[in-house]
Design a protein that fits this description.
α5 (about 135-150) packs across α6 (about 165-175). β6 (about 180-185), α7 (about 190-200) and β7 form a beta-alpha-beta unit. This protein is of the alpha/beta class. The protein has 12 helices and 9 strands. The protein has a 5-stranded parallel beta sheet. A 4-stranded parallel beta sheet has the order 2-1-3-4, sandwiched between helices. Bound molecules: phosphoric acid mono(formamide)ester (CP) and norvaline.
Amino acid sequence: MKLKTKNLLTLGELSPKEFSGLIDESIKLKNELKKNGNKPILKNKTLTMIFQKPSTRTRVSFEIGMFQLGGHAVNLSSNDMQLSRGESIEDTAKTLSRYSDCIMARVYDHELLETLSQHASVPVINGLSDAFHPCQILADFMTIKEKKKKFKGLKIAWIGDGNNVCNSMIHGAALTGVHMSIATPKGFEPDKNTVTQAKKLTSVELTTDPLIASKNADVIVADTFSSIHNLDEERLKKFLPKYQVNDKLMKSAKKDAIFLHCLPAKREQEVTSSVIDGPQSVVWDEAENRLHTQKALLAALIHA
Ligand code: CP
Ligand code: NVA
């Protein structure tokens, strides 16, 4: 499948049909990989990856995903690039476009991605910015589809910080019509504009009470209270103990509710070990699905 958008900086760039199409394609690629291996649909294609922040899953899933589709990925830490000595993002975009068929970047400032994509002649993928993490949410909705077999009528409860992953999850909910209830402390709500836009397409509830959000939820989602761009231990006081996903909170959701976490997790902070390592947790499938969704996205953006 091909996408209308050149880049994927936020899920807001996709239509509902494209989003569901990417998820279905990811499930196909997963089955194909497990049967006979993937066909080399990205043979001789290349991806350059810029990381301003650390990563385990995003880096490995993009790199191995390219390899499994017959292509190649080059990993660049921004500290080792001329960017660190003042070369502009515009010149970096133009240069990398002459070498590779696609650029993936993990950055602090979301606007940097916008500048990068404006000056790159090849597609640019957001591998996480301070504002959004679209690739994570493709994997999350793939996992939800695998476990629940549908999106219609589901309720997702987001508990904790209204952060970059939460913002992208709101996009995902809007694209699928899933109801979302978000419990955050005052002052830690998700992006206002994202919520306003999503409310035109689905119901998005904001609350400060985790038990309101989790009531009758099919999916409970947690993420760190202290993202890479917000490394401040003082923040924890605002979240603990109220916003921790523990057995009591899981019990207030539906009996067959699943637990998602993009990882890395801080056990006994945003989630207890009993939940993340318990029977309702699907976090390892979720992490694996990064690989399959990455591949579907790369195949859809990189054209012959
Ligand atoms: N979930 C996620 O993006 O993980 P990494 O930070 O390890 O890439
Ligand atoms: N919200 C976290 C997600 C890490 C994958 C962060 O931005 O650090």
